[in-house]
Amino acid sequence: CATPQLPQSSEPANTLALAGRLSLVSGTPDAQKALYGGFRLVLRGAVSGEFEVFSPLGQMLAKAQWSSGQASLDNGRQIQHYASFDDMTRAALGVALPQAALQDWVRGRPAASLPSQTLTDGGFEQLGWKVQPTWRDGQLALLKAQRLAGDPAELRMAIESATTAAPQTAP
Amino acid sequence: ANSVQLLEQWLQQTRGASAQFTQTVSNPKGPAQAPATGQFAFERPDRFRWDYTKPYAQVIVSDGKQLWTYDHDLDQVTITPVTQAFKGTPAAIFAGTDLTRLFTLQAQADAGGLQWVQATPKAKDSNFDWIRIGLRSTAQGPEVAELQLRDAFGQISTMRFTAIKHNPTFGPDSFRFTPPKGASVISQP
To answer: What are the C-alpha distances in Å from A62 to residues B54, B78, B113, B125?
Structure first.
């Protein structure tokens, strides 16, 4: 399916940094793959970012970086390069996570520039995924995203910390 | 005894232990993770459990056959074969099956009141550089007071153990895990 075009935001990109734990389960029940561990996700606007995954005991297992037109995945021993964020996440996780909307989903909202449908339970559907944010004291505490079409996949993120930084203005 | 001999004594005299742990992770290139604390226990050859209580609730239990990992917030249990748990991870130190087959052991300088051994994995595909084991002698024999692990990115995770009990008697359910009602359970082949 055609990858939705990223919104070309004109205003300077601010940076969102999230940390917590995540699980990603993909495949049919008889051949499921599960990834579980700590994560640190940094998003700089809509097109670039980095993502670190840790073992439950705190060991860094992989570090992904991407910007427009390229993505790379480092396991500490070797770096693999990919043409896009989607290709990288498909190779690394077995699931192509929709980059066009990810930076909004992790803020608990649908991407405004793409079609979506609000659901009665406070969630929403977008790009063939059902997304369920859970808020605690006004902060996004948990995010569940289930793929509705194609091979089953479910991403769960427990968000322990979220910080936003304004863009670095030139001196 | 030098530190490698002390480690060998510990391996001979220790069937199991329980302790409280504090885990800190230092990252030379970026912000480290928040410290975590909890309870740890193990019983040779292949049963152990880490019960994280702060800053989040996470349980990792090996019952000797399977490794159960439960995250309270995600409300999810992942089950994997226990063999993966021991393949070149800190758990292999506690399993005690011949360390010299899996690691090259080197005595290090004393530091922080402990005697240190560096265990470098022999497997080329290991996802960490080394584990350092900090030991001390006590009236009940040698004990492991600290573990440091440097991963492939240069991050160092440090586990400090306190309130250590040597060779305690574990109940039959000590290393058994029952998924909470309603949690989603994912078992991996």
So the answer is: 24, 19, 34, 14
